[in-house]
Amino acid sequence: MAYELKCNELRELVENGGQLIDVRSNLEYSCGALKNAVNIPVETIPHNTDTIDKSKPVMLYCVSGMRANVVKQFLESLGFNYVYNLGGISKLAHC
Length: 95
Fold this sequence. Notes:
By secondary structure, this protein is of the alpha/beta class. It contains five helices and four strands. It has helices at 7-15, 26-30, 45-48, 66-77, 89-92; strands at 19-22, 38-39, 58-62, 83-88. Helix 2 links the parallel strand 1 and strand 2.
């Protein structure tokens, strides 16, 4: 389900314009998020796809990877080509 992206690969993608998106709720996001992450809660994604650049990699995460996977599938159905489900925030916190 989740793509195993190494920390250095994640950092490089973000530094080169990749979009790091936290799909957790606003409350979860406010309790702590990854550096450079933008919060777009899973239920608001259909109304915010115009804020996501199709030409750049999209890296998604949540608590377990389940919501990120739903968003990944949705974005891919809209023609997004470079979408990664990073899984849960706890395994990414050291990045």
